[in-house]
């Protein structure tokens, strides 16, 4: 099955010479959830805006649902839904009217049942007759999502969809994304909430300085780049780390009451058995031990720091 989105050697250089995108290559499959991470100014929004036809690329090509975003823009814009970062809604319209109007803009026939279900999915049904100006920031964000879904797109872009909103909306959003994916919708989101990517994404992309420095399956990424730590709480404190432990990647913490051993999950042998044997020889006893896995946030910070 061909990719629903195909990006080849995409670059964007603005008039002043700033290169916002640098030779991006990416294939996205139907009903896949991609999370794009990166620091501010990395190029995430520019990438989304280019695919959506808001910004013209300097070079390269993008196809959506088999159609070029320039030559076939009529088709691509119909199949794409976009939730931008900015809250841009008509303050004097009601929730129902603005969502229904958005559907009509794409030439879709009225479907009150669909609009009703969308509003219910986003916990907006009881606000359907409220004017936008009467809503909180979080509720306005929900309306933006409802507008993007109003014409039943098969590709949905969410640019920081839960920025500055409450935990309840995030959970509603995650549940809605899963429901959309089960119905065949492809979702691409940018987020600064790394737990959001960790919760719902199939693949993680990391953008820095306009370059896609990594795109990989979330589980494989965490397995490949994640590290585990063995944490031992000691019975008695150590003033210094014994020389016999220098060959282990180990640190002495908590005023000498804790040893933290870091090991690579991809290695055949973790070294834990050898470490415990050496501790026994040295007469170092511990009250408790536990393991801790690197989070996606740890991996992201490491990638952005180390990328050239």
Topology:
Blueprint: E1 5-13, E2 19-28, E3 33-37, H1 44-51, E4 59-64, E5 67-68, H2 73-79, E6 80-83, H3 95-105, H4 112-121, H5 137-149, E7 155-159, H6 167-182, E8 186-190, H7 194-200, E9 203-208, E10 211-217, H8 218-225, E11 227-234, E12 250-253, E13 258-264, H9 272-282, E14 286-293, H10 296-306
Parallel strand pairs: 3-8, 3-9, 6-7, 7-8
Antiparallel strand pairs: 1-2, 1-4, 4-5, 9-10, 11-13, 11-14, 12-13
Descriptive report:
- With 308 residues, the protein is α/β, with parallel strands linked by helices.
- It has 2 domains: 5-222, P-loop containing nucleotide triphosphate hydrolases (Rossmann fold, 3-Layer(aba) Sandwich); 227-306, Alpha-Beta Plaits (2-Layer Sandwich), CATH 3.30.70.
- It has helices at 44-51, 73-79, 95-105, 112-121, 137-149, 167-182, 194-200, 218-225, 272-282, 296-306, and strands at residues 5-13, 19-28, 33-37, 59-64, 67-68, 80-83, 155-159, 186-190, 203-208, 211-217, 227-234, 250-253, 258-264, 286-293.
- Helix 3 packs parallel to helix 5 (137-149).
Keywords:
single chain, 308 residues, alpha/beta, Rossmann fold, 2 domains, 28% strand
């Amino acid at each position: 099955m061909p990719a629903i989105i195909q990006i080849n050697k995409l670059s964007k250089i603005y008039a002043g010479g700033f290169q916002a995108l640098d030779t991006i290559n990416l294939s996205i499959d139907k009903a896949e959830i991609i999370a794009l991470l990166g620091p501010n100014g990395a190029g995430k929004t520019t990438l989304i805006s280019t695919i959506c036809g808001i910004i013209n690329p300097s070079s390269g090509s993008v196809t959506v649902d088999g159609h070029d975003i320039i030559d076939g823009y009529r088709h691509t814009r119909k199949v794409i839904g976009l939730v931008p970062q900015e809250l841009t809604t008509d303050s004097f319209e009601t929730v129902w009217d603005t969502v229904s109007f958005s559907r009509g803009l794409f030439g879709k026939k009225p479907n009150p049942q669909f609009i009703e279900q969308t509003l219910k999915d986003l916990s907006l049904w009881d606000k359907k007759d409220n004017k936008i100006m009467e809503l909180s920031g979080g509720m306005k964000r929900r309306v933006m999502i409802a507008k993007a879904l109003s014409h039943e797109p098969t590709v949905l872009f969410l640019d920081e969809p839960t920025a500055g909103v409450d935990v309840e909306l995030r959970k509603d959003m995650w549940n809605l994304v899963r429901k959309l994916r089960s119905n065949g919708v492809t979702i691409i989101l940018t987020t600064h909430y790394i737990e959001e990517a960790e919760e719902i994404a199939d693949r993680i992309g990391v953008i820095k300085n306009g370059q896609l420095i990594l795109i990989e399956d979330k589980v494989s990424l965490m397995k490949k780049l994640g590290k585990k730590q063995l944490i031992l709480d000691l019975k008695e404190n150590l003033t210094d780390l014994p020389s016999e432990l220098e060959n282990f990647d180990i640190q002495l913490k908590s005023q000498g009451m804790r040893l933290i051993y870091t090991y690579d999950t991809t290695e055949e042998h973790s070294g834990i058995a050898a470490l415990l044997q050496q501790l026994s020889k040295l007469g170092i006893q511990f009250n408790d031990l536990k393991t801790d896995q690197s989070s996606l946030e740890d991996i992201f910070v490491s990638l952005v720091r180390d990328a050239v």
